[in-house]
Write a sequence for this structure.
């Protein structure tokens, strides 16, 4: 067995490169991997991790990289966060699995109570737990269809909801998520996203028109009374960190309420303090009927949830929802540790502070580099979109070049966007401000290499 160095917040919080990136140990693992791991599973960074904590990742060659990715918005409380690690260790020593559907345990109930308390709205709620975000989305759709007796589901351009068959159908982007994997689930209808930068005639027109366009398409092409659910990410994640104009989400929620349609907020990426509040819906006081959670919920262990109105959630017959591992006791222990950390360390406040540090520096950068067409996001969910200067033509090559230059310099950044032309920043919410500033400096230098 490989011995790992200790991680967590005690790990020295500094960038330190002792080899080129990737170093010899990572290159050797890449070669081994080619003979063992399916090619379809790819990785962003060329290095193999041996420890992580706070705002750093340590690789197999002993390099310390600054983490601006949090494993895709998962380790918001930091890697190996003390309250997560200690609860996981204690739970693993007590019991690792019974299956909640066979012999239940308190941790599952307690996570559901926390979800019911923390998600938007003071109405009576119930929750159910699953293993992955995609599985939570699938179950939210199952519940909405069951409760309404309707089958149509409306999703948006640029949406990302997962990689299972139903969630591939909900996801908008073909390559790499859907290419060659059809046929897809039926009764999914797609409508335009309120995407201010790319709305014909620009952001003001987007604010004025988007909701009306969506409503009239649903009316004309689906029929309100056929629609079980409208599902939307309050801030779209993989699609490019697209923030709809104020009022769009609230208008959509009101339209759903007027027509007996279940309004599902997919907060798998935006939830759990990432945007500077517990959930992104809260910024505008939007209360979804169902909300899906995942990613940051359990500090890195696989867990996801569906939370919503008791009347909808309790509509399904006993035994209609579940799964072998859903709400695994170790994952629930991790979630309770993560939620405790978010409250105790005011990580929503930390996310707002991260945004306050990042946004002005990125806007200044955009002033120097016209390849940056847009700087957007909320809290610690921030992105820049790159286009050929003076146009809206996506520049995926420049985006990849900047990301690669960052990786070589020891900064882990991720890209996203339907056109592959968005750099997204999702630092752990516990990152130190010196590392945050240093990471931004590396990013600025990377733009200088274009
Ligand atoms: C990541 C993500 C999912 C899928 O979650 P998995 O755990 O990868 O299945 C669904 N919706 C959104 C908004 C996501 O960001």
């Amino acid at each position: 067995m490989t011995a790992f160095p200790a991680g967590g917040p005690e790990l020295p919080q500094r960038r330190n490169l002792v080899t080129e990136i990737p170093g010899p140990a990572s290159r050797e693992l890449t070669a081994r991997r080619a003979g063992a791991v399916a090619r379809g599973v790819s990785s962003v960074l060329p290095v193999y991790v041996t420890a992580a904590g706070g705002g750093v990742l340590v690789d197999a060659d002993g390099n310390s990289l600054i983490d601006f990715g949090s494993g895709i918005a998962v380790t918001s409380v930091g890697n190996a966060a003390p309250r997560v690690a200690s609860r996981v260790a204690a739970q693993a020593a007590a019991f690792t699995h019974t299956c909640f559907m066979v012999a239940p345990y308190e941790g599952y109930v307690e996570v559901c109570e926390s979800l019911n308390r923390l998600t938007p709205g003071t109405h009576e709620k119930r929750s159910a737990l699953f293993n992955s975000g995609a599985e939570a989305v699938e179950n939210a759709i199952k519940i909405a269809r069951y409760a309404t007796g309707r089958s149509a589901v409306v999703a948006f351009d640029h949406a990302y909801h997962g990689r299972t068959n139903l969630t591939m159908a909900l996801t908008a982007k073909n390559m790499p998520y859907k290419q060659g994997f059809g046929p897809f689930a039926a009764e999914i209808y797609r409508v335009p996203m309120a995407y201010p930068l790319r709305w014909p005639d620009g952001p003001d027109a987007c604010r004025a028109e988007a909701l009306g366009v969506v409503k009239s398409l649903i009316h004309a092409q689906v029929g309100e009374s056929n629609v079980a659910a409208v599902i939307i990410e309050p801030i779209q994640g993989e699609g490019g960190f697209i923030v709809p104009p104020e009022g769009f989400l609230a208008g959509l929620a009101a339209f759903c309420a007027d027509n007996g349609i279940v309004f599902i907020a997919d907060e798998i990426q935006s939830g759990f303090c990432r945007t500077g509040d517990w959930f992104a819906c809260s910024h505008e006081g939007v209360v979804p009927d169902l909300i899906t959670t995942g990613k940051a919920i359990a500090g890195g262990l696989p867990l996801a949830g569906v939370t919503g109105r008791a009347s909808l959630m309790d509509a399904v017959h006993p035994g209609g929802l579940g799964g072998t591992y859903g709400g695994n006791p170790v994952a629930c222990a991790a979630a309770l540790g993560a939620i405790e950390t978010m409250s105790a360390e005011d990580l929503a406040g930390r996310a707002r502070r991260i945004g306050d540090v990042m946004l002005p520096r990125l806007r200044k950068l955009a002033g120097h580099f016209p390849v940056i067409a847009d700087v957007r996001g909320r809290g610690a969910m921030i992105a820049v979109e790159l286009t050929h200067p003076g146009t809206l033509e996506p520049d995926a090559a420049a985006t990849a070049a900047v990301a690669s230059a960052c990786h070589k310099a020891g900064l882990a950044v991720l890209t996203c966007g339907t056109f592959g032309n968005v750099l997204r920043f999702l630092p752990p919410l516990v990152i130190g401000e010196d590392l945050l500033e240093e990471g931004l400096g590396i990013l600025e230098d990377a733009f200088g290499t274009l």
Observations:
- The chain has 13 helices and 15 strands.
- The radius of gyration is 21 Å.
- The pocket of pyridoxal-5'-phosphate is lined by residues 132-134, 137, 160-162, 233, 237-238, 266, 268-269, 294-295 (CB under 6 Å).
